[in-house]
Amino acid sequence: MGKVAVGAAVVCAAAVCAAAALVVRHRMQSSGRWARAMAILREVEEKCGTPISKLRQVADAMTVEMHAGLASEGGSKLKMLISYVDNLPTGERERMGKVAVGAAVVCAAAVCAAAALVVRHRMQSSGRWARAMAILREVEEKCGTPISKLRQVADAMTVEMHAGLASEGGSKLKMLISYVDNLPTGDEKGLFYALDLGGTNFRVLRVQLGGKDKSVVNQEFDEVSIPPHLMTGTSEELFDFIARALAKFVATEGEGFHPAPGRQRELGFTFSFPVRQLSISSGTLIKWTKGFNIEDAVGQDVVGELTKSMEKIGLDMRVAALVNDTIGTLAGGRYHNQDVAAAVILGTGTNAAYVERAHAIPKWHGLLPKSGEMVINMEWGNFRSSHLPLTEYDQALDVESLNPGEQIFEKIISGMYLGEIVRRVLSRMAEEADFFGDTVPPKLQIPFILRTPDMSAMHHDTSPDLRVVGGKLKDILEISNTSLKTRKTIVELCDIVATRGARLSAAGIFGILKKLGRDTVRDGEKQKSVIALDGGLYEHYNKFSACMESTLKELLGGEIAESIVIEHSNDGSGIGAALLAASHSQYVGVEES
């Protein structure tokens, strides 16, 4: 009877513990909230309670069932089977009872321990998830861009623009004078070339212009990747590489692209880095950005450096215009639409240029241009303000960059950095919340391994199981078997970082419009203003560009928003440079034969 009783008790205890574990597991899977988990545990604890009064009731019930089982076959749940053993050795009964009880205790303890381990694992998982969510919410809060903050950023941008126009070094915005005082009109005609150096790639173009009636008759281009070691090497190495690529491109010209006999090839050079312009065709490099750091080029005339490299290999080509990529975009936009007032590049890096009234440039000491206008290269990537919503991840990225303390605006809105910001947040989530498991994925520790195009692909993933996100994690970071919940969190993080960048970009554009007085209706008339946009980030990251445009409308308000138009100036930096080379050609006024 002792064996049967103990066995039944063990079975009962095991069943109860197993049931409790199943309840806890089921409940924990359906909710990650710690409070709910605690409620479930307390409920189990209450229902598993064994006060002494209940134990006495169990013992009494056991005694009753024993009596019933002894009275008749089938009269009780306890069978009370007769063993026909009627003699035991002295002391044997006591010893066997102890063994039976000991075995039962060990079994019950094992079952309860297993249940406890399951509960603890679920609790730990819940705690880690809660920590990951806390990190995400903190990032979301610090990246917040309410409309009031965006107006403060725009106002700060306008103030810095005034300061930069007043004197050299008076602002974080360099507000560089471009010496471009006449933008294309559409009458330009002839064969011209362009070199567009703006990031990790550069392009060479040839453009046949047909004048007012025919516009761009024909064009061809080639794109070349810059080897990483040349981005931090010497000036001679970089420009020699570019000159060789340019010569190779010229060598592949078809019959329709040869210049007129006796004429030197002319080139518009789009150089997308801060330059102190000396004339329309010369300028010294102020500093590198976007990952370049070639010390011996700083302070040098970049046109002179390129010309030396071209002469070295016998390439007969004259640089007719040195322009910034944003000025090239402005020129390209104006060629097609005379209402273009400003241009913005949103790509690997970012910048803006606009048409300023010449009399509003105090630091301009020369004769006022006949047009009364001057194109200003803002170099707005270097803008910074206490109103910018910066996080610890932005600050760490800046400190570890090649140019700490510089290009702060660029580091939170441009394509070079958005993916890296996401990586840094994910790295912290992995370290502090085991977001990807018990170990931090080694690849996740590599700076800039997560590029903004990959971030964009994850952000735009609309598949039910977010398979694109899963694929990117596996292919780039070697992280497999992520849960749907994890992938959804990553998409949300991409949205937070991209939204901040897009809304701040809109605030910058709004600041330019305020400076030009085009943010309000004046004298009852709405002046149409077109902003030319170019760059891979704007062109390919659709959620980014849509957010930027809707935010600009929000800042402008309904009435004035109708008169502000954003146009994609496709390949503005390349075509624009060729157009400016045409307007500054040494053969202007000479009929083409």
TrEMBL record:
Keyword vocabulary terms for this entry: ATP-binding, Glycolysis, Kinase, Membrane, Mitochondrion, Mitochondrion outer membrane, Nucleotide-binding, Transferase, Transmembrane, Transmembrane helix
Transmembrane segments: 99-119
EC number: 2.7.1.-
Gene Ontology biological process terms in this record: glucose metabolic process; glycolytic process; intracellular glucose homeostasis
Locations listed in the record: Mitochondrion outer membrane
Residue intervals of the Hexokinase N-terminal domain: 41-93, 136-335
GO molecular function: ATP binding; D-glucose binding; fructokinase activity; glucokinase activity
PROSITE patterns, A to Z: HEXOKINASE_1 (PS00378), HEXOKINASE_2 (PS51748)
Membrane topology listed for this record: Single-pass membrane protein
Similarity section: Belongs to the hexokinase family.
Protein name: Phosphotransferase
